[in-house]
Every structure is written in C-alpha cells, then in structure tokens.
Design brief:
The chain has helices at 3-17, 21-32, 37-44, 48-66. By secondary structure, it is mainly α.
C-alpha cells in the first residue's frame, strides 16, 4: 500500500474513533459487515428510521473529517 493509502486508512480510522459508539457501530455493521438497515435495527433493538438517522450522522461526520475539517464541539454529541 502506498504512503497516501496508509495515510487515508489512518485518517479513516481516526475519524471512526471520533464517532459516538452507536454511530460507529451502525456504520461498521452496514458499510463493513454488509448488514441491512432492518438487520441492524433488529440487532440494536430499535427501528429502521433510527438506523437511517445514525447512518446519516455518521456519514456527515466522516465526510467532514476526511476533508480535513475538525468537528465542532457540539457535532461530537449529536
């Protein structure tokens, strides 16, 4: 893997580590493990709409951090 690939991987790991637990797990289950929203909702004992909201928040925060912009203090809590 090239240096830029290692840097991107490290940056993604750091960005994931900055997410609240529920968003990190929701993102991991869907994007990495391939679970559907319905399956995630069942595992987390919630509904599909809540999973959609957590994914939207996770994607927003990850995209912002991958662009090199830090999260505001309040963004870390929602």
């Amino acid at each position: 893997m090239s240096d830029s690939g290692h840097e991107a991987r490290r940056q993604m790991q750091d960005a994931l580590a900055n997410l609240p637990w529920i968003q990190r797990e929701t993102f991991r289950l869907h994007a990495i493990d391939g679970y559907s929203y319905a399956e995630i909702a069942f595992l987390m004992r919630t509904n599909v709409r809540a999973v959609e909201q957590q994914m939207a928040r996770a994607i927003y925060k990850l995209a912002k951090q991958m662009e090199g912009r830090p999260l505001s203090w309040w963004e870390r809590w929602f």
